[in-house]
Structures are given as C-alpha cells and as structure tokens.
Amino acid sequence: MQSVQARSRLLPLLRSPLLGELLAWLYLHPEMSCSVTELARQFGVSQSTVSREADQLAQAGLVHEERRGNLRLVRADLTNPLARPLTELLTLTYGPAAVLADLLPSVDGVDEAYIYGSWAARYAGEAGPPPRDVDVLVVGDADEDDLADAARSAEQRLGREVNIHRVSAVAWRSAGDDPFLASVRSRPSYPIVKPGDRS
Predict the structure, then answer these.
(1) 28 occurs within a structural domain
(2) What CATH number does the domain containing 120 carry?
C-alpha cells in the first residue's frame, strides 16, 4: 500500500488512495457495517488513520457510524444525495480492488492474485489516462472456467472488461526468462490475494 499522503491518480478529486479504497469498500458493500479495526487491517494502515478518515466522512454525512461498546462501526450512508453518483465514481476508479477482493479469495486454487497494468500504475501514482480495463494475474492452479466466471461477475459489477491471466506457482517463483512475467514483476501491482492469505 502506498503513503496515505500521496494524491490519488485514479480519482484526483480525492486527497489520497486510502480514502478512495475506504469509500469504495463501504459504498460497494452498502449492506455491511465494518469496524475501524477490520478496515485498518484490510488496508494495512493504523486504526488511528482509519478513525481520522471515518471522522471526516461522518461529519460530511458520507458514512453512518455506530458504537457497540468499544467497537466503532461505519457503513455507507445511502440517504446522502451524493450516494448514487459517488458509488458510480468509486466503481469506475477504486471499484476493481473492492470487487475482486470479494470474488477471488473464494476461488479454489488461487494462491496469489494481483491487479497489474494501467489500473495498478494509476494506483501507484503514475500519471496517465483512466484505465479502460482491469488486468489481473492469478498465481496457482485455479480452474480456468472458475476464473472466467469470476471475471464475468467482476465485469458486470464494474462495467468494464476484466482480463484474468493465470500462471502456475512454479512459473511465478522461477527466475525464468518469461518476458510477460518479468514485465509484471517490474511494474506496479496491487495485491488482492497475498501469499499466506489462504493458509
């Protein structure tokens, strides 16, 4: 994950990628209430960082918060008039991370998964046009039909093409001279399923 201070290149209206990820997760899962602790763990930042963001979003009426003892829960506030257009913007920008994190961890045989290509480059702060599609590398022995189903589900939710490329764990870990894998390794990527997540 990148610095909280870096300006978002996926949605330049936002001051940071973390804010985009947080809003996308909440608005693309409007039925869920998430604890600050869960969100901090998911995005690899401190609880205080997520808490500060949640404070500002609650003050702006973008999230609803609830306390259960020491547990602070937040969820998207769909009564806000900005909810529908904001959801559309977030789907087009930070949506791939939130949607693929729903779909890929449940596919058998997915050991690791990464978004690469133009979406990952914009997330990493590289200037450029908005991504037209989403490229995903899956490491493992997942069934191609299961991956195609996941790609179709993601496309329906995101409104754009999702390309999933599968490689074996051996190929990914080898120091071979596959130019495609060398290119993926050398460029920005965003982890969806990290090594050890499934163990």
Answers:
(1) yes
(2) 3.30.460.10
User: Which amino acid belongs to residue 73?
Assistant: L
Domain boundary among 62, 93, 124: 93
Under the banding of pLDDT at 50, 70 and 90, the label for residue 1 is: very low
pTM, two decimals, is 0.86
Short-list 100, 123, 120, 125, CA closest to 192 = 100
106 and 179, same structural domain?
yes
At residue 194, what is the residue type? K
Residue 33 sits in a domain whose CATH number is 1.10.10.10
What is the spatial distance between Cα 102 and Cα 108, in angstroms, rounded to a whole number?
14
Long-range Cβ contacts of 35-39 (<8 Å, 24+ apart): 35/71, 35/72, 35/73, 35/74, 36/72, 36/73, 36/74, 37/71, 39/74
Could you give the angle at the alpha carbon of 56 between the alpha carbons of 76 and 69, nearest 5°? 70
pLDDT tens per residue, range 132-178: 999 999 999 999 999 999 999 999 999 999 999 999 999 998 867 78
Q: What is the 3-state secondary structure (H, E, C) of 154-189?
A: HHHHHCCEEEEEEECHHHHHCCCCCHHHHHHHHCCC
Side chain identity at 161, as an amino acid letter? E
